[in-house]
Amino acid sequence: MTDTTPLAIIVLAAGKGTRMKSDLHKVLHPIAGRPMLMHLMASAAALAPEHQVVVAGHGRDQLEKALGATANIAVQDPQLGTAHAVQQAQDALAGFDGDVLILYGDVPFVRTETMQAMIARLHEADSPAAVVLGFEPADALQYGRVIAQDGRIVKMVEHKDATEAERQCRTCNSGLMALRSADLFGLLARVGNDNAQGEYYLPDVVNIAIADGRTCAVVVTDDADEVAGINSRAELAQAEHRWQQRRRAQVMADGATLIAPETVWFAWDTQIGRDVMIEPNVVFGPGVTVADHVTIHAFSHLEGATLAAGVQIGPYARLRPGADLREKAKVGNFVEIKNAVLHKGAKANHLTYLGDADVGAGANIGAGTITCNYDGYFKHKTVIGERAFIGSNSALIAPVKIGADAIVAAGSAVSRDVADGELRMVRAEQLVKPGWADRFHDAMKKKKAEKKA
């Protein structure tokens, strides 16, 4: 692609995905917490395309909801092959004059650099009619072959139709292709369906162009994994595994420590700082940012959370969306934080729920404390002042404010504001009955003995 040549992206996503056995559209199944289609769209978006067209069939409503206004939806019905699918984008690209990149929604990890290489090849001096992305897997299996000499395609052939000599070719067809819009739809119109499936296949445009005397070229990726398709739950799991392996390696290369890397799971947008220590069995959902010198102890789950420098969490902590832990805050075992800020040095070390709360710097939240933030209809906020001390097993019934340096006695249920420096104790008066327990035990032992007699 030149600086002035506009680009259109066509993504084929009309397949039924029957092998997934799912009500969810195949290309919307997540990898690292993000639909596979969105991984691909993000890579393509880096090229600033003028048009993005997703060809849908089954599950069109799901795709429309997921994509919103970011792409046009073209419908393939009936589904008569890949060439027929690309044809369905013609109306959406009416009047467009530029390069067209054809991608597949179930091949989510094609790099932006690879897309750029395909388009750049389209603009080289020999001006190829089509550029095919090839790859060289360890086992070529049943893949179609790209027979080429010096990067120029001689023939595209399906495995079942290839000769033994052609099957020795290691360059396989990924299905991805770049063409000029001026060539694309004219070539597609000439594709026939004289084959066993009675379908119109996209690779045929290459053979038609070659028969016309046009040059067609192949660009071969050095990473076969980036063109791996996902058609089943097993392949989805394999793609997740590959993605996680690479992300873990990158996190460690960037200066974080993973004690047991294979047990840590990142989301697509997880940000990890330097000198971060992550213990085993930690899971990151989307939307987590971790600053430098943070320690995340084992078996913690984080989603939509922000951790400032020096924070410590876990083990067995759960940070939900809106958890905002400021410098050197501490969240301990079996503590859940949701939509709450813990300011510098604030601590909630054990068995606590803080939801819709603002906890002041240096405050201490005792074990078993909960903020009662939901009345069955609305959420309400709890504000805890700096250096406040909340005793164990306290219930703070929002909306409520606890003042700076205040103390809430253990076991209190606080429903009214507590002033700065105040002690609030909300307990029933203790009833004392001397000797009652001894008399009770004697009576029960006698009764039990009588039953045995």
Write a compact overview of the structure shown:
With 453 residues, the protein is α/β, with parallel strands linked by helices.
Specify the number of helices. 9
Compute the separation of the termini in Å.
98 Å
Mean pLDDT: 95
How does the overall form come out from the CA principal axes? elongated
Approximately how much beta-strand content do the residues carry?
25-35%
Describe the biggest sheet?
A: 19 strands, parallel
Uncertain residue segments: none
DSSP strand tally: 33
Structural class: alpha/beta
Determine the fraction of residues in helical runs and give it as a percent range. 10-25%
- Alpha carbon gyration radius: 31 Å
Describe this structure in words.
This protein has nine helices and 33 strands. The termini are far apart. The strands form five sheets. The protein has a 19-stranded parallel β-sheet that branches. Strands 5-4-1-6-10-7-11 form a seven-stranded mixed β-sheet. The chain has a three-stranded parallel β-sheet with strand order 26-29-32, with no helix packed on it. The protein has 453 residues and is of the alpha/beta class. β4 (51-56), α2 and β5 form a beta-alpha-beta unit.
SSE arrangement:
Blueprint: E1 7-13, E2 30-31, E3 34-35, H1 36-45, E4 51-56, H2 60-67, E5 72-75, H3 82-87, E6 99-104, H4 112-122, E7 130-135, E8 145-149, E9 152-157, H5 164-167, E10 172-180, H6 181-188, H7 204-211, E11 216-220, H8 233-253, E12 257-258, E13 271-272, E14 277-278, E15 283-284, E16 289-290, E17 295-296, E18 301-302, E19 306-307, E20 312-313, E21 318-319, E22 324-325, E23 330-342, E24 347-359, E25 364-365, E26 370-372, E27 382-384, E28 389-390, E29 395-397, E30 400-402, E31 407-408, E32 413-414, E33 423-424, H9 436-452
Parallel strand pairs: 1-4, 1-6, 4-5, 7-11, 12-14, 13-16, 14-17, 15-18, 16-19, 17-20, 18-21, 19-22, 20-23, 21-23, 22-23, 23-24, 24-25, 24-27, 25-28, 26-29, 27-30, 28-31, 29-32, 31-33
Antiparallel strand pairs: 2-3, 6-10, 7-10, 8-9
